[in-house]
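During the no-cost extension, the postdoctoral fellow (Dr. R.K.) reprocessed legacy sequence entries with the updated structure-token encoder. One reprocessed record is reproduced below for audit purposes.
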Amino acid sequence: MHPQKKIHLVFSFIMGAMMVFIMTFVITLVNVGWNASFISLWLGAFAIAYVVAVPVIFFIAPVARKISSQLLSMPV
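Re-encoded structure tokens follow.
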């Protein structure tokens, strides 16, 4: 695998974990509050969201980077 693709793949896994960790925590907390089932509900939401987020980040990040570069008139 080309080093740049490897970096992008690792980035997708790390960014996915960080983003999903925070977002599922907040949304689960807002929806169910801090109760006895919070952790299990949060972990379930995390597992589902992480599986969705990593491929989305992998395919969408380059598009977002390109659009950002065009908006700022900077090279990719």
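DSSP finds two helices and no strands in the chain. The CA atoms of residues 65 and 74 lie 10 Å apart. The remaining legacy entries will be reprocessed before the final report is submitted.
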